[in-house]
Amino acid sequence: MSRRVRVGIVGTGAIAHAHAEAVAREPERAELVAVTDIDAGRAAEFAQRWGGRVAADLDDMLAAGDVDLVNLCSPPGLHTAQGEAALRAGASVFSEKPPALSLAEFDRLRAAEEASTGWFATVSQHRFGGRAQWLARRWREGALGAAMTGVCHTLWYRPDAYFDLPWRGRWSTEGGGPTMGHGIHQIDTMLSILGPWREVTAVATRRARPVETEDLSAALVTLESGAVVSVVNSLLSPRETSYLRFDFEAATVELEHLYGYEDGDWRLTAAPDAPASLTDDWEAGAGGPGSGHSAQFAHVLDALRDGTPPPVTTQDARDTLELLAAIYASAFERRPVARGEIDASSPFYGSMAGSGAPWGARV
Description:
Layout: E1 5-10, H1 14-24, E2 30-36, H2 40-50, E3 53-54, H3 58-63, E4 69-72, H4 79-88, E5 92-95, H5 103-114, E6 120-122, H6 130-141, E7 147-157, H7 171-174, H8 178-181, H9 184-194, E8 197-205, E9 216-223, E10 228-234, E11 236-248, E12 251-257, E13 266-270, H10 276-284, H11 293-306, H12 314-333, E14 337-338, H13 347-350
Parallel strand pairs: 1-2, 1-4, 2-3, 4-5, 5-6, 7-10
Antiparallel strand pairs: 7-11, 8-9, 8-14, 9-10, 11-12, 12-13
Helix pairs in contact: 1-11, 4-5, 5-12, 6-9, 9-12
């Protein structure tokens, strides 16, 4: 695609501003041409700030035929139908997480992608920071030795009032609690660096929030490499942090941030017998991009220009979504769950709640 990519944004809430800013940072390669929101007034204010016409809805936006890329910033329960509509129109899609509420819904999106000239990509911005890219590359090259263990903790805080929006805290509209809607960011980053998972044993509970879903989960994930990773997802943690730790033979690499990182949020501790060149390589790799939407959006534009698969393909996103489904299945059925086990015959294929959370309905 030689001309500028024409972008339409669906949903103009808080996260949409990150998408609009990413477009604005690429003035030679992208332009915002249309926005839509169920709240017409909010859409108008958004368009006044960032540009683009205000469409009545997604169908109206697509009918004009001038949108190449649809950025889905709408609530999770709308992503599947909206993604299918955009793909039918031949547009590509860049969707916020979670991209669908279940594996069944996501497989509908994959089928729509196969029938379309466009593609479907999921926002996974933490994969694209400079340090994460360095770490994934060096581990694949063998510079760090074997992966031993890791930590993947999303310890956030959301008060009861956060769930006043009717779609939050419900299986049918949000898909799950912090495992699905919050921890997915760190879990996806961990998998993008260390590779595929093999088995998970988990617990999940509703401790305090007025929700149908969990507000806390914990899991031990065994990866194909043999490494074992501790995963905790919480909305009950007053000192909020997102913490990733990777213990390799040659070094420990840590990342602590909240909603986005820069180079300075990372730390490498070399093993006593590690070559000095490893620390030198780490220091030489400083100065890369942070983990904001702009870093991934640049790769999205590259893919559209070059006619290549998008960064974070549907297979990549499905691998992460399958682990989330397995965490719920393990927690609710109180047993280990292996990769590939959740197929169309499993109740967790159609809903992360499976046959129902053990604690019952919303309080």
